[in-house]
Write a structure and sequence with these properties.
The protein has helices at about 25-40, 55-60, 65, and strands spanning about 1-5, 10-15, 45-50. The protein is of the alpha+beta class. The chain has a three-stranded mixed β-sheet with strand order 1-2-3, with helices on one face.
Amino acid sequence: MLVKIDKVQYMNATAYLKVGEEFRATNIAIIQQLVMLQNLLKLPILAFGDYNIDILGMKQPGLLKAHGMYVLELPGGPSVKFGK
């Protein structure tokens, strides 16, 4: 989805990484697909999703940094809700 915030257009992507895979083949492929789409559209990307990987786990392998991506941690930390 393309969105415009304060006159800047972004690509908004929702991705669900495979549980327990962390940065193995399936999840690497998903991230690479997001990067390819970003490169085709020449737009910044906002990616949201249920990543099933903690914040440190996403930063450590260097995969995101290698593709020019980073985790933006919002004030209050990650949004998590259990139960009702």
